[in-house]
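[step 3/7] inverse_fold.run input=structure_tokens len=153
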């Protein structure tokens, strides 16, 4: 093995690839999470708020955006954001959310709406144009016109 390797920033995709190659274990970082994701690692998502990076299962993604799971309740990794971008939907600074399909950069307000399947029509169509028919934008959660079907309260 060569000692020097090109280090790429870890992304959901290559972290998940290393899972299937038998590399590091990929699991929800909430300390009390008991969900068994063996074989379902692709439903995990990674938040990066500029300070910390957190791998979370769908339940804990919702708890995180609702403020019900805090930094101290999770095994944190250091952030890999070097420069924070603006939200894709407004002028606020974005946090990053990466799943196996795409990477969203949204402020905490719009991130909470995305994760809770509760975007309004205008927000939905902007993100849909950019990201396409991803898991979080698919038609179980929104009507054709972008109306939210089953927002998480
Ligand atoms: Zn979890
Ligand atoms: Zn925003």
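[step 3/7] decode complete -> sequence:
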């Amino acid at each position: 093995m060569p000692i020097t390797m090109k280090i790429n920033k870890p992304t959901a995709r290559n972290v998940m690839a290393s899972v299937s190659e038998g590399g590091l274990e990929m699991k929800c970082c909430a300390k009390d999470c008991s969900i068994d994701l063996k074989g379902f690692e692709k439903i995990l998502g990674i938040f990066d708020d500029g300070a910390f990076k957190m791998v979370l299962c769908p339940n804990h993604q919702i708890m995180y955006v609702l403020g019900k799971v805090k930094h101290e309740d999770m095994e944190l990794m250091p952030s890999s954001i070097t420069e924070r971008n603006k939200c894709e939907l407004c002028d606020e600074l974005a946090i990053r959310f990466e799943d196996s399909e795409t990477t969203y950069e949204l402020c905490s307000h719009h991130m909470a709406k995305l994760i809770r399947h509760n975007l309004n029509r205008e927000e939905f169509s902007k993100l849909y144009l950019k990201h396409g028919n991803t898991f979080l934008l698919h038609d179980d959660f929104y009507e054709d016109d972008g109306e939210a079907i089953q927002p998480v309260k």
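[step 4/7] annotate
The chain has a mean pLDDT of 86.
The chain has one domain: 12-120.
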